[in-house]
Amino acid sequence: MPFLCFGETQNLLEGGAMDAFREVEGWHGVAEVAAVEGKGELELKGEGKILVNSDRKEPVAYLLTKEEFGDVRIELEFMVPKGSNAGVYVAGRYEIQILDSFGRERFGAGDLGGVYQRWDPTLPKGKQGFGGIKPKVNAAKAPGEWQTMEIVFRAPRFDDSGKKIKDATFEKVLVNGMLVQENASTGGHTRSAPLEGDSATGPIAIQGDHGPIAIRSYKVTALPDPEIARLEELNAYWTEVSRAVNEGDFEAYKATCHENAVLVSGPKKVSYPLTQALARWKTEFDDTKAGKMDASVEFRFRNRYGDATTAYESGMFLYTQKIKGGEPKPEYIGLEALLLKEGDDWKIMMEYQKEVLTKAEWDALKPES
Known about the structure:
Elements lengths: L8 E3 L16 E8 L6 E11 L10 E2 L7 E8 L5 E6 L3 E6 L18 E2 L9 E2 L16 E8 L2 E2 L5 E3 L2 E7 L2 E8 L19 E2 L7 E9 L3 H22 L2 H6 L1 E9 L4 E4 H16 L3 E14 L3 E14 L5 E14 L2 E12 L2 H6 L5
Parallel strand pairs: 17-22
Antiparallel strand pairs: 1-16, 2-3, 3-16, 4-15, 5-10, 5-16, 6-7, 6-15, 8-9, 10-13, 11-12, 13-14, 17-18, 19-20, 20-21, 21-22
């Protein structure tokens, strides 16, 4: 099957029941399915697109997608009979448990919606299973009822040397519309995973060897890296700052600043509200807009840390001013900035003009491609 574009959702059962999956015995498509009351069995009829793991009693292998995924949203509609046990292994390694947990008042990581425990055979007996995250609520319906599960998964991150710098995380898991996991970090691959170790990508697997399961809707959406999207937003922010300076658009520049922002000057060893600096800079904006002078600013960054609503940016900026008829006067300034996102807009909260630097230092700090 072709690689899915970010944001494109595909129902893996849209074609034949097995078209999107690696070849495996025991899994097939049926037209109708129902749980046998009081038993851990499914009654199956006909051929169709409802995916089941077997009408036989012996266990069958895991069902793996042909495609591999990193960050992904998975949406399932499934049914299990009484006492049945299955699971969804994202990237073939990180399990959200599927279990007949109906009516349980006490529940844990092994119940429906739990992040299953990890396993280390080198640990003392009785302690080999560890970790796991129980669901926030028991959202299980009765066996034989169709249930829904939505998983939003963020793959582990690795640095350039291959060292893991962030664990795989279940950003959100909903069972029957109820939130059962939020920002749940796995720590590593979970117990009984068909694939071991950590990986940024992998197939999605459904466990088939612990009991019957039927799936009548199985959708996946490849998700973009939120850090890439965040940096794109911040790059657009700094582009707007540059445009406002270059065109002498004072109101637009002011709009990029938080009302409580602070300016820190390292060379002068002072700090004060940015509103005071804006009042002083307005004359230069007006002169630029009127054509009395040219002004421009460029940014290059060394460190860019943050999350969805905060950003720490450090590097340099080059501010060049040229009075009409005069020579350009470039200034190379070390920069540290703190920004907050309010609604859809980033705004600078602190601008630290740290030190005066040189053209050589500017040239050494390569612009982002």
